[in-house]
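REQUEST FORM: STRUCTURE PREDICTION
Request ID: SP-0412
Submitted by: Lab K.M.
Chain count: 1
Length (residues): 183
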Amino acid sequence: MNKSIFTAIAVLVCGSAQADNDDKGVIFGIGAGRLTASAVVIPDVINFDRDLTAYKGFLGYRFNKYFAIEGAYIDAQEATQHYGDVLSISLSGSGWQAAAVGTYWFGDHFNVFGRAGNNWYDSEVRVSNGIESITSRDHVDAFGWGAGIGAVWDRALFRVEYEKVDFDDVDTDQLSLSIAWRL
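STATUS: Completed
RESULT:
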């Protein structure tokens, strides 16, 4: 009887160790979505609030099925907002993100996750009055967080995610769809 209990415990331990090893490893993926940028240019006079298309490529490491670290490159395409027939403001940016990702699984196929980390962006703002333009470039960094849902289908992980980053002058909200694979 003691031998049977020992064998049962050994099978459970080895089986769970194998499952943990299956959940570890390098992950990579791509995504795209809508990034909304909001800024107060001149208080009570000019506000910038536009949607930009954003693309993301990411690489990370899963320590187990519940915790991972990820690095991402995000490229937000240019968006322009016009103020009457004369003034326009254009905004674009790209940058890097480093984040810790926590995941809670519902069975083997569905999960919810949250992320927290830092973002480093290079942004470009162009103000034009129809005759001449002024361009300003800036490098900013800020804390960001996100949350989403994921589903595994045929070894691919599909994610729908909301991310929020508030820089000094610009607040961003991003809703994206991504696909990831584990090496």
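NOTES: Confidence is low (pLDDT under 50) at residues 1-21.
Reviewed by: T.R.
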